[in-house]
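Please check the following for our workbook:

***
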Amino acid sequence: MTAPTRPTQPEVSVSTSSAVRKRLAVGLVAVLCLAAGTVIGDRFVPFRGEGASADCGGLLSAVDMGFLQQTGFTGRRITSTEFTESGQGDAYRLDCAINGDDEPQLDARVRVTSTDAEAWQADLKARGRLSGTVKRLSVSATDGQEAAALSGDSSAAVYLPCKLAGNKTIHLGVSVKAPGASNGNADNQRLTVAAIASRLANHAVDEAGCLKPVAVVDQSPTFAS
């Protein structure tokens, strides 16, 4: 009696097996790097998901927003953004709000102000837009005009003169709150938030129609000595 024929097992090629092992190894390394980045604070995946972008109308980059505390291995998902910019001169204004995982992450505003720098700073503190211990940042203005750049806990503000046609001078007040900062009182994160305020300030003096030479702020700010 002839024994039944058993189906032969398919051979797994060495090259296919090696390719699978290589893909698994690469995936494992990626996961470990991402985990390490989350632990030490690097932001490999600042934001996840599709749709809303966290860039304030293209003015900011993922590096600017790298101070945000991340959740798990996948980063925060931007759930909504609002950006508006309108007017020139006395009527200029800019607003940018970014929410991640349905929580406020960044709130930036530029307004024309008629007060001096001291009153402007007092108003920001009274409204909670400049919190904690305030540190001064290096800033300079042309022709001896008044300017100020300030760093707070998870916040920053810039006050710049703007000369308009007709020999009229106004001041632009920039304020940035970053409630999403993982450690907003640390000097490195203070300077990151201050850099966002500086970037918006330099943009605003151009868009508001300020006459040259315009006051500008260093976009890599430092604390005043």
Notes: The first strand starts at residue 47 and ends at 48. The CA atoms of residues 67 and 210 lie 31 Å apart. Residues 29-52 have pLDDT under 50 and may be disordered.
